[in-house]
Design goal:
CATH class of chain B: Mainly Beta
Number of helices of chain B: 5
Largest interface: A-B, 27 and 26 residues
Radius of gyration of chain A: 32 Å
Largest sheet of chain B: 5 strands, mixed
CATH topology of chain B: OB fold (Dihydrolipoamide Acetyltransferase, E2P)
Strand order of the largest sheet of chain A: 15-19-20-18-17-16
Distance between the termini of chain A: 72 Å
Helix content of chain A: 40-55%
Structural class of chain A: alpha+beta
CATH architecture of the largest domain in chain A: 2-Layer Sandwich
Oligomer: heterodimer
Number of strands of chain A: 23
């Protein structure tokens, strides 16, 4: 039972990849309806899900993917064009596949909501309507294949096994008879396996040259009882789709040429029932006693066909392994410790005066370089491209456009940008909010757009990229933009700002992030309940990032998110306060300076402000803020850090000494202790001691009401 | 507070005893991860006074509790002779600042007596029971109660 469970878990993992391929291919088909490769890839993805679903008895998924597959088959055979409504239908079907897989994975009964949900039935109807021919050949063999992997000879059609029939279909549609193609017979000998080689990577490598048609020959397999465990029984018959040279093929098999029988044949169509061809191969690389007929009369062995499909299904498969996230995190922790130990070592060596020895110095420098490179590489393991996130978002855009009756196109850029996995997971909700906002509030209705002289179809551009050590994501719409006056009057109405206050445009935009703020005239299903942007901001902030808005009235709005590359290290300014070392994150730091008598002003009995370039900035002592000491009475000559809170407010923090800027490894406090006010985390310094990392926003909040009062007095 | 050592031998458990403010205390050996010498701590703001601060244990950040202070026996001025007992309790790792570790003893659970009610309130809060070992009184500490609760931390 547990074995089955783990197989099922494996199936769902595979589904994730297949669904991603599906979304990818859908986008490609939309761009070019005649893209046969994309349609084929789409078909194969759906087909593979169906196959797996059949094996686990997930009937709802099988039924739906079967209908989907029929439609795709018609598209593949050019009976239906993937344009307009059919394209929309494909997208909806794709979304439904996602839902079905998800509900099966969560072990919800999909039939339950299907019955209530008329949409599902309607979708199925729409799909079957779109199919050109009504009666798809649901023959007995198809049924059997769906109900389980029933062994059967390959000589008859086997739709249940994707690898074997899908590429074959490519050939027939491409009108390729294989006249001048190579036919490769590849039979690994025992020694190939003994030397640690594996046929699969070879076939994969071959598939990077050209599309392949791969058939596994299982005829050499003796009955189970007579099998020798380390003997090689399998061979493969490979037909490259395009003409590729014998040199190229041989190059791939170069390293195993002594451990296999490799035959290159040319000019014969591959028909399994003509073993005679093999008796006069035009080119034989190595003669071997095992040259006797390799007849492709395979029983439907699921495992083999699946393995081969992995090789031939994708054009350039990148090899990857699945690793438990825990293991990676443990590795990251260990490397963090290594980096700290290295720093401790060099510090104690330099204190001991041993640094004068060039050999020690050289070795230490190398160690340092290795450690930091190791750290970088290991952090990169956790990084993932934002592609999957973008794919999810394209669905959000479709649905939001549908719900609001607006035509919206999503353009994405920078899908390959890599971000920490945790960041990706936690970005999904904020991005969803932001996209819905852009479509609901930003993009106008088609009529309004026409009047304004814009194309009736609105556009949302989502981009990601690395810029100066940060990940920058932008969501830009070409909608109506933000009406500052409307925002301001709304804020005054809600009592968020006083009517007399004069705010800069940026300050007005920032009001949108206030809890309970919404300017939408009509509260729609999508957004406008005022639970959006403040959640977005707090989520981004908890990831150590920032959000900002820029907008041009009538032309659109751009929301920019900047995020740290990793959650494991932070760039910070090391400062000394009351004998302790503290770290102020550089992301909040704007500038450092020394307080001079002329710029310090007293406001009330104990509040201080600095006047700088015409603005007044409230001053706090960092030591006092974390309760280490009282606010110094005279701050003249003290170093000052100008920090900006996420809300966009500047505050000045006085410290005793600035020690320098450094990247520090973040060590959470919550695992062993708990959350501490004003402190984001801790880090271990080069001497092994611990320094606290300051949470600037919380400090500003702690400083609290007094601050707000003085700020109000300043702006008034 | 159930441990493997208790389960294997239902009546016997091994304890680590140590001295705090001239009194003997102990905890179950299952909770002790290691014992190390005193090193300077980094003070934590906004925490109860008995939280001495943070130390670095091979890259892990661990809070250290001044056990004497926690028990209401006056605060410790730690020097080189003091030790930190690194403990694990409900997956949280914490250090207990004590004067010295005395012994590892096997005791009979049935011999544990409930503390008399006349002890000070701070001590009664964290002392689970007492053993009499070689004519001296050894107080068993309920480790879970020594650490500040989540509520106390975030207050």
């Amino acid at each position: 039972m547990t074995n089955r469970e783990s197989l099922k878990a494996g199936f769902f993992q595979e589904c994730e990849d297949l669904l991603e391929t599906m979304s990818d291919s859908l986008a490609r088909v939309e761009l070019d309806a005649a893209d046969h490769d994309a349609v084929n890839a789409l078909f194969r993805a759906v087909h593979s899900i169906k196959g797996g679903a059949g094996a686990f008895g997930l009937d709802a998924l099988v039924t739906f993917s079967h209908a989907f597959e029929n439609l795709l088959d018609d598209i593949r055979e050019d009976r239906v064009a993937a344009r307009g409504e059919v394209m929309q239908l494909l997208y909806r079907a794709g979304d439904r596949m996602h839902d079905l897989v998800e509900s099966e994975q969560n072990e919800q009964d999909p039939t339950q909501w299907q019955q209530q949900d008329g949409e599902h039935a309607a979708l199925l109807d729409a799909i079957s309507e779109a199919c050109a021919r009504t009666g798809h050949d649901d023959t007995g063999s198809e049924q059997a294949a769906e109900e389980g992997f029933v062994p059967m000879p390959l000589a008859i059609e086997m739709p249940g096994l994707p690898a074997l029939d899908a590429p074959a279909d490519d050939d027939s549609s491409g009108g390729h008879d294989g006249d001048d193609r190579w036919r490769i017979t590849f039979k690994p000998l025992k020694s190939l396996y003994v030397l640690g080689n594996d046929p699969l990577p070879l076939i994969r490598a071959l598939s990077t040259l050209c599309p392949l048609d791969v058939k596994a020959d299982l005829s050499g397999l003796p009955p189970l009882g007579e099998m020798t465990w380390d003997e090689a029984y399998l061979s493969w018959e490979i037909t490259p789709g395009d003409d590729c040279s014998a040199e190229e093929i041989r190059e791939i098999f170069e390293f195993v040429v002594d451990d296999c029988v490799l035959e290159l044949d040319r000019g014969n169509a591959q028909t399994p029932d003509r073993p005679s061809e093999k008796e006069n191969p035009s080119e034989q690389i190595q003669a071997s006693p095992a040259t006797e007929a390799l007849v492709v009369q395979a029983p439907g062995d699921a495992a083999t066909s699946r393995g081969v499909r992995g090789a031939s299904g994708q054009q350039a498969p990148r090899q990857s392994i699945r690793v438990d996230l825990d293991r990676v995190d443990r590795l990251i922790n260990l490397v963090g410790e290594l980096v700290i130990s290295e720093a401790m070592l060099s510090q104690s060596l330099s204190e001991g005066g041993k640094f004068r020895d060039p050999a020690v110095e050289g070795a230490l420098g190398q160690l340092k370089q290795l450690a930091s490179e190791l750290q970088e590489r290991i952090m990169a393991i956790r990084a993932q491209s934002v592609k999957s996130l973008f794919q999810r978002m394209s669905r959000i855009v479709r649905e939001a456009g549908h719900a609001t009756g607006k035509e919206v196109r999503l353009v994405t850029d920078g899908e390959a940008t890599e971000v920490d996995k945790t960041v990706i997971e936690r970005l999904a909700d904020p991005l969803t909010h932001m996209l819905r906002n852009a479509i609901d509030h930003g993009i106008e209705t088609p009529e309004t757009r026409r009047v304004a002289g814009k194309s009736p179809q609105g556009m949302v551009r989502m981009t990601a990229g690395h810029r100066s050590g940060q990940v920058i994501m932008e969501i830009a719409d070409d909608g109506g933009g933000i009406d500052c006056d409307a925002v301001l009057s709304r804020a005054i109405e809600r009592g968020l700002v006083s009517p007399e206050a004069s705010l800069t445009t940026q300050e007005i935009y920032n009001l949108l992030f206030e809890p309970g703020f919404s300017t939408a005239q009509n509260v729609s299903n999508l957004s406008g309940r005022g639970v959006g942007m403040d959640v977005v901001r707090s989520e981004i902030q908890s990831l150590g990032g920032r959000v900002s808005i820029d907008s041009t009235l009538g032309q659109g709005t751009t929301v920019t998110i900047s995020l740290p590359l990793t959650l494991a290290v932070v760039e910070g300014m090391l400062v000394e306060v009351a004998g302790e070392t503290l770290v102020v994150p550089s992301s909040a730091l704007r500038e450092t300076m020394r307080a001079e008598a002329g710029m310090i002003h007293r406001l009330g009995p104990c509040d201080l402000v600095l006047s700088m370039r015409g603005t007044l900035i409230p001053v706090f002592d960092l030591g006092a803020s974390i309760g280490e000491r009282k606010m110094p009475l005279d701050i003249n000559g003290m170093p000052v850090l100008m920090v900006e809170t996420a809300a966009g407010m500047m505050i000045a923090l006085t410290v005793d000494r600035i020690l320098g800027q450094r990247e520090v490894v973040i060590k959470g406090l919550s695992e062993n202790y708990g959350l501490v006010r004003g402190i984001a985390a801790a880090t271990v310094l080069g001497d092994g001691r611990i320094a606290l990392i300051v949470d600037v926003d919380q400090l500003a909040q702690n400083a609290g009401i007094a601050l707000e009062d003085s700020a109000a007095r300043l702006t008034a | 507070m159930q441990d493997a050592s208790v389960l294997e031998e239902p009546n016997q458990r091994e304890i680590v005893s140590f001295r705090v403010a001239d009194q003997d205390f102990c905890i179950d050996i299952g909770h002790v991860r290691e014992i190390r010498g005193w090193s300077e701590t980094t003070p934590l703001p906004h925490t109860p006074e008995y939280v001495k601060g943070l130390v670095n244990l091979r890259g892990n950040v661990i809070p250290v509790i001044d056990l004497a202070h926690r028990l209401g026996l006056g605060h410790t001025d730690p020097g080189e002779r003091h030790v930190i007992v690194i403990t694990v309790c409900e997956e949280r790792i914490a250090g207990l600042l004590v004067e010295a570790v005395s012994d590892i003893v096997t005791v009979d659970c049935a011999e544990m007596k409930h503390p008399p009610s006349l002890t000070s309130s701070a001590a009664r809060e964290v002392v689970e029971g007492v053993f009499v070992i070689r004519e001296s009184l050894v107080r068993m500490i309920d480790l879970a109660r020594v650490l500040p609760s989540e509520a106390e931390v975030s207050e």
